[in-house]
Every structure is written in structure tokens, then in C-alpha cells.
Amino acid sequence: MTAPQNSAELSAESSGTLNPTDEPAHYVWQVPEYPKVDRLDGVKRCYVTEIRVNNFKSYHGEHVIPLTIPAIPLITQSSSTGDDRSANEERVPLALTGVIGPNGSGKSNLLDAVCFCLCVGAKRLRNDRLRSLVNSNRTMESQGDCTASASLTVRIERELPPGEGDASMEHTIVSHTTFTRSVTIKSADNNPDRGADDETHRNDDRGAAGAAVGSVYRVNDRACTQAQYKEELSKHHLDADASFFLVLQGQIDKLLSKDDAMSITKAIESASGSWRYRKDYDIVAKKKEHAQDNVTRLTAKRKQINQELNALAAQVQEADRYRDKRAELERKQLDKVTYSLYEIEKEADALLESSEGLLESYEDAKAAVQEAKRKENAAGEETKLLAEEHKRLQNSLEKVRKKQGEAEITAAELRGRKKQLTVNEAKAAAGLTVTREKLQSLEERLQNIDDESAEIEACLEALAVRRDTIDDEIGGGVLTEEIVEECGRISETAQEVAASIESSIRVSREQRILLDQYIDETKATITRLEETQGIRQRESHAAEADMNALREKINARELAVAEERRERGERREAKSMLKERLEKTKQERREIVDELSIMRANHRESDRAAKLRTNVDQLIKEGPVARPDANSLNSAGGGDGLILGLVSDLVHPSHKKYYQAIRAAIGRQHLEAVVVGSRRDALACIQWLKEKQVPPMTFIPLKDMELPPRMLSKEDIPPNSGLRRAEDCVKAANHVPSHLQGSHASHRSIIELIQKLHRWLLGKTVVADSLAQARSVLYHSGRRNAPAMPSGMKVVTLDGDKIAKNGNMSNGQGALPGDSGDVWDAQHVDSIKAELAQKDGEIARIGEELRGLTGTDGVSDEAVGDDDDPMDASLEMSRVEMGSLEEIKRVADEEVNRLGASIEASRGTLAELEVQRDEAVNHLRELEEELSDKTKSFYDDINRRVFGEDDGSGGGDRTRDVMSLIRERKEVLDTIEGEVCKLRQQRDTLRGKREALEADLDRARATLTSQESNLEELRRALEEIIDEEKAMEAELAAAREAGEGAAEELEAKVAEAAARREQAATRFHEAGQQSKGIVDRCNELKAAVTKEEHRLQQLRYRHMQLVRLW
């Protein structure tokens, strides 16, 4: 980049950094070159084809990760000894490689291996020490040497330079380069030759035992230093120091989180490397700014000089013109006496031309009046459009505010949900505490039952020992073996019967225990349901109280809002009425202004028409044309010496609705023309006008009128089209003008001349009802078989609009103001002016009242209607909260009803279980009685069998001793058996209670787990609500800022629209003033025309005097 130089100082060149004191036009700036890197030439593509890691972090052993699709199936080998590289295997590069897998599968460690192999700095890795990159393995630690490595295989595709290689072969060379970096942990006393150390991590990681960590760099299995390794990476276009060469985790989110333009710009500069030239760019920018200031200053100075030169040149031209005019004036003064007569005639001709020019200016001024009215109407339309735009912007502003209110309502809903979740969390925590206390109580009761069971087992063992020794204590050798055997057999039979009865008793006892457990569980369930029902009832009562308080608040707020709406409606209605009054007053004022302008135009037109008619009457009476006779009219030169009068007196519409159409068809110039016999009569009349100093007139000579070759006939008018010939819309010429009735000319000849005048003026004109109908006649729109109209035809409408077939069109030429010829009434004009002033005062007063009704912020209440009136934010929030409370109360009532139904069902179940338990107790009692009866019958049978064969001699004592022994033995055994049964019953009861307690304990633990999970879910939900609330608050803040910005922008637009509306009103007023000025200009032009005509009469009189003197 080279800046312009001065030719005198071309040698003053410099490169590098600029001196800020140098002049902007005397330096040469050169952009510093980027540091040169010895890269491979002609590289077409460069990409990684394979990653190989060995004992790197979570990867134990050697793992090969291919990044390309081989031509044949590729088997990935994950062993520390195998080698699966295929040098001759062709691989197709992938467009995109994705690494997927579950959490902890090693995806991030694979990317860390790539960063480690590309020599990424330690700050960008996720490990502060190289020691943590080695896979921790007891086997490797026991060996003392731990090595981790990562290698990348890079494929390079280069294009051969032109002229090299065989033309029949491809011009692409493919080569592979493998970059390997390994880290080794060795003990302090084991320091073999391990290649080049890592300069950045040589001694930064040393353990307590003195182990050292070092890095080894290899390129294609050739050891090298770190600098050589990085240089080789740069040659292969792998520059890890470049910004965003590797996009690590979190960098995308960090880049996307930048919300200001400066941070994004810095990130882009960092990625592109343009930050290196920031200082040089600032210096060049200062130089450029200095040069631009100088150029601006010189340009302004040159412009000022050019302006001065132009002013001097204009003065010189003005002086030349003044000198020429002065010389011409001197010549004119010298020739004044000699050519006075010629000058007078010339001045008269000039005055005639000037009069014609003034008349044309007068016509142009009238056209300008119409244009000014059109502009005034356009300004009114623009004012209306700007008012609509102002109203639309106000509606947009209200919508923005309404949107902000809705966001606040959403935030209130989140707060309500947060409050409800907080209450539920507290309740869940309280329930969790109760459950934990209940679980602790159950565990204590279970421990007590275990202690009692151990005591009962000890008692049972003691009773079993006593039962085994009862025969030695009581038998004493008294009972014989046969008796004992017989008693044994009978006892076995009794035991079998007792065992069957005891099994039934046991079953009955177990059934009773289960029923007791079911009853206890049912009672606990009823108690828990009653507690929950009480809690829900309290929640319902609290919600109902809150609803009552909130309902009172909503009613009060609704009353306030209704009052505010009523007041706003009253203001809007009052303003609407004032606007209607204002529009009505403005319309009345416009009508008054139109009436006043029409009266003024009518007055001027009436004066002009009266003067014209007076001059025509004077011409007929005193003119040079004699009254015609019958011979002159019937001769070959018939028509000489004849003045028929004005065209307006000879052409009369047949109906008043054709008045404007006929006037537009004839035109004002022809309506005010005088019809004479021939051109000679017209010249004589013009000479007489000059002599009498009468204003000029237009004459139509009958002799010189040539009718068109083809006139419009009745056959040319389509039937049932609503069209008519203009000639048929005038009265037939069946009478002679009054001043010709006493002449010797025949009335028939005069009427024929008038009919010829009608055909000449209206012979090719059609009268249509509307402009659309006129266009359809000219252009055959919608009329496929319409007859062809004669050329040169024109169409007029009943409103006076005229259109020709060539496209020329005039709007309302026959309906110009002043055609009615109303008489000027000064008193009526004064009353109209007073009424106009009154309307102006009323408009001002209504405007003040409207400004009083408009708000202080410039926003009218009319911009907001009853339907789109924004609701009060607090009222809407209260209604939302009311809905939430109603929902809470409804849910609580439903829960109370459900719990009541559950309690009733549980109580019914409890009654049934108690009945079943009573039946089981009665059945158990019956079985015990049956057991006792069976035992007694067995012992009686033993006595009969043992002592029934005795003869009774001397055996009474023995029988009594045996029986007493048996009875004693039986009593002791019964006592022991009773105690055993009692202890067993107690043991079974304790076991049943223990099982019930264990079931209760399991249920309590399950309940505790469920409550803990519910509590965790509530806490997670609460955290989510808190996060959502924070996000909503941030979004609300952003929306509030954006809304405030949008509101400010809309308010600015509203103010701008109001200003534009005021400007449109100003333009409307200026258009009115301009229209008034143009009307005044028309009056001035008319006065000038009159003055010029008077001056022309004076010149003619002087001319006549000079002629007489000459």
C-alpha cells in the first residue's frame, strides 16, 4: 500500500512504522510482511488419517483409531504388541469424523491425545502435569518405567509443478508423515538416553521418590528436538499456536456468549491474526484522518474561491449589460424625435401583444388556481394519512406495553409455583422426619423382641432337660417294663393325637397372629389417613381464606379500573364530539371561503361580460357595417355587411342540464366571439374598435367558415347508448336576433346562417353522461360492433369534462367560477367575511379544548379503545393468583374426599378383620379343650389296661402306687408340657410380632425411600423453577430493556409523526395561502390588462393626433 508522494520529495521514502509528525502527502507506507514459514509447496489437501495412543490416560495398551474409510474392511487392533498398519492400503478421506460414546468412554481423552501430539500448551490441556497423562497401572508402576505416547498420521496430497513427472500419470503426489510424542516417567537413579526433553515440561513434574518426567518427539520414528518437531508440524500446515486451529470444549459457548460488538471483533481479530497489525493500523488511520482534514480544508477553500470568481464574473456581465443598455438608451433618445410616429405604432403593437400575453397569463393563473386547489386537497389527504400513521404508532406502543405486562404475569405465575413447591418441600421434609422416627422406634421394638425370644429359648431348653429326667425322679423302679412299654405305646398314641390337635392349634395361632398384624396395619393406615386428611383440610381452609382476601382486593381493583375506563371513555367521547364539531366547522369555513371566492369571481366575470355586451351593442349600433338587405344576402357574396351578435346569444341549450356541456364544447373564446358576415366586415369592425379605443374582440366571419367534409349524423350514434349529438342539445334556430328584425334581409337566410354556425361549432361533438361513457365512445371499450366515429370527434360530459380521440382532455372548462354572473352584494360579502372570522375563532377555541383533553405525554386517549384497553398488570396477576388458589383448594378438597373414602373403607376392613380374629380365638380354645379331653381319656385307658387284669389280692397298694406314680408323672409332664406350650406360644407370638415388625420396618424403609425420592424430586423441581425464574427475570429484564428501547423508539416515531402532521398542516395552510395569492395575482393581472387597454387607447389617440399633425 503506497500513498501519493510529492515529486520534489520522492527520495523521502520510509518503510515500517510511520512517524506521526510526518506530513500526510510525503511518505511511503509498506505493510509488514507476515513471518515466513518454510511450508511444503503445492499442497492440495492435508488431513489426519490415523490416531494411535499407547497407555495414554484411560487407554491401557495400544489403540488405533482410523479416520478414513479403507477400500477393504479394516480391523482395529487394541493390543500393546500387535501392528495393524497397512501401508499399501488405500483410504478414502471422510468429510467429517465424529467420535461418539457414553459418558466416561474416553472421547475427551482422545481429543487430549490429539492436543498433546500437536504440542498444545499445558494451559489449554485439562491436566496441569504430564505425569497425569500416563495410564496408572500397578504392573507398570512395579516395573519402574511408565510411558504414554500419542501419534498422528498425516496424509499430504501435493500437485507437481508444470513440466515435472510423466504426462500420462496423475499430477498428485501422496505422502504420509507420522508425528509421535511420548512421555516417560523414570526413577531418579534410572536415567538412560531418552532423546530430547520437553523444554516446557522437563522438570515440572517430579514425585516424592524423585521420579522424573520427560517427553520424546519423533517424526517418522526419527527422534528430534521440540523445535524441530514444531517446525515439521508447521511445514505440514499444522500450527497449533494459530488461533482457533483447535476448537476445544467450551470455546464455542464462550464465543456465542459474547454479547457486545467489541468482544466479537476481538475474537475475529484473534482468529484471523489481524491483531498483529493493530498498532500500524492506528498510525495509518491517524495519517488518513489528517490527510482527509487537509483535503476537506482545501476543497472548502477552492469552493470559496470559485464562488468569489463566479460573483466577480456576474458583476462583470452586469456591468457589460449596463453599458450596452446605456449606449442603446442614448441611441434611442437621439432617434426619438425622428421616429416618434414609428415608435408609437410599435408601442401600440407591443401593448397589443402584451395584452394578449397578460390574457394568457390570466388563463395560466386560473389554471394555477386549480393546481393550488389540487395541492390543497393533496395536503389535506396527506394530513389525514399522517393522522392515521400517528394513531397506528400509538397502537404499536400500547401493544409493546401490553407485552411487557404479560411477561410480568408469567413471572408472577413462576413465583406462585415456587411458593407452592417450597411449601410442599417443607411438608415432605416433615413427613421424612416422622418416618425416620417411626423407623427408629420399630428397630428398638425389634431388638426387644429378639431379647425376649432368647430368654424363651433358654427356658425351653431347661424344660426339655427336666422332661428327660422325670422318669428317674418318679419311676424309682416301681413301674415294670411292661407297664412302661404299655404306657409308652399308649403315650405314643396320645402324642400322635395331641400332635394333630397341636398342629391345628398352631395353625389357628398363626392365623390369629396374621389377623392381629392386619388389624395393626389397618389401624396405622387409618391414623395416617386421618392425619393427612387433617393437613389437607387445613390447606383448604387456608386457601379459602387467601381467596377471600384476594377476591376483596380484585373487587376493589376492578372498581378502580372501571372508574378509570369510564373517565377515559368520557374524555374520548368528549374529544370525538369536539373533533366532529371541528370538522363540521372547518367544512363550513371551506364552504364560506368557496362561496366568497365564487362571488368574487362572479363579480369580476359579470363586470367583464357587461362591458363586453355593452361594447357589442355599441358596435352593432355605431359600427361601420350597414344593415344588410335581401339582395346582399342572396348574392354570390352574400353575408357581407352583417353582424349577427355574440355566439352566446345565438346558441341556447335545449335544457338546463346541457348548459355546462354546450359551454365546454364551444369554449369560452368562441362563446365571447362576435359573428359577422365576412372577413371584410371583421376587419372593418377591428378598425372601428381601434378608432373608438374599445378593447379587442374575436370575430367569426360566416363567409370564411368551412364545414368539415363529414359531419356527425344521427346514424353515427349507437342506439340505446345514452349518447346524443351536441347539435341536438341546443334549441333550433327559429328566430332572428332583435336588431335584425327590422332589416330587409329574409329571416330564412339569417336562420340558415345561424344553423351553419351551429353545425360549425357542434357538428363533431357528442354529449355523454359520464367520463367513462365518453372514453368508451372514443376507444370502443366493451363495444365490439360499435360503428367507427368520424375523425376529429370530441366528447363532452354533462359536468363539462371534454376529451378528444387523440387523448387531449380538459376538466370542467365549461364550469369555471364566474359563469353564473351573480350580482356583487357588498353587504352580503361583509357578512360572509364576518362569518368567516367567527368560524376561525371557533376553530381555534375547539383546538384549545382538544389540546386540553390530550394527555401530558402527547398521547391521546382516543388511541386506545374499549376493546384493546390494556388490563392493569396487578389486577391480572391477582386473577392468576386467584386461579392458582382455586386450583389448590379444589385439589385439597378432592384429596380430603378421597382420604375420607379410604378411611371408611379401612374401617370396614378393620371390622371384618376383628370378626375373623374372634372366630380364630374361639376355634383355638375349642382345640385346646379337645386336646385336654383326649389326653384324659388316654390316661384312663392306660389305668384300665395296666391294672384291669389284677385279681385284687394284695395289690391295692401297688395299684395305688402305680397310679399315683403315673398320676404324679402325668401331672409333672402336664406341668412341663404346659410350661413348654406357654413358652412356645410366647415364642410364636414374639415371632409373629417380629415378622410384623419386620414387615412394618420394610414398609417404613420403602416409605422413607419414597419420601426421600419425592423430596429430591421436589428439590430438583424447585431448582428448575428457580433457574426458570432467573431465566425469566433475565428475559424480563432484557424484554424490559428492549421494550423500553422499543417504547422510546415508538414514542420518537409518534413524536415524529406528530411533527410530520404539523408540517402537513402547515403545507395545507401554505397551499391555501398560495391559492389566495394566485387569486390575488389573477386580480392584479386583470387590473394590468385593463391598464394596458387604457394605455393602448391613449397611444391610439396620440397616434391620431400625430397623423393629423403630419
Keywords:
single chain, 16 strands, 5 domains, Helix Hairpins, Rossmann fold, alpha+beta, 1110 residues, 5-stranded mixed sheet, disordered N terminus
What characteristic shape results from the CA principal axes?
Answer: elongated
Radius of gyration: 63 Å
**CA distance, first residue to last residue:** 90 Å
| Poorly predicted segments | 1-37, 69-94, 191-210, 629-638, 812-824, 856-870, 949-963
On the 0 to 100 scale, the average pLDDT is 72
Question: Given the structure, what is the number of helices?
Answer: 19
The proportion of strand residues reads 5-15%
Strand order of the largest sheet: 2-1-5-6-7-8
Total strands: the figure is 16
Structural class assignment:
alpha+beta
Biggest sheet record: 6 strands, antiparallel
- The domain count comes to 5
Domain SMC hinge: 641-778
Biased composition (Polar residues): 1-20
Region (Disordered): 1-24, 183-212, 852-872
Biased composition (Acidic residues): 859-871
Describe the structure in your own words.
With 1110 residues, the protein is an alpha+beta fold. The chain has five domains: 43-69 and 92-160 and 171-187 and 210-241, P-loop containing nucleotide triphosphate hydrolases (Rossmann fold); 290-403 and 1047-1107, Orthogonal Bundle (Helix Hairpins); 417-467 and 972-1039, Orthogonal Bundle (Helix Hairpins), CATH 1.10.287; 491-568 and 870-932, Helix Hairpins (Orthogonal Bundle), CATH 1.10.287; 604-625 and 640-781 and 789-821, no CATH class. Helix content is 63%, strand content 8%. The chain contains 19 helices and 16 strands. The strands form four sheets. It has a six-stranded antiparallel sheet with strand order 2-1-5-6-7-8. It has a five-stranded mixed sheet with strand order 12-13-14-15-16, with helices on both faces. A three-stranded mixed sheet has the order 9-10-11. A hairpin with a 4-residue loop joins strand 14 and strand 15. Residues 288-403, 432-459, 547-622, 910-937, 987-1102 form a coiled coil.
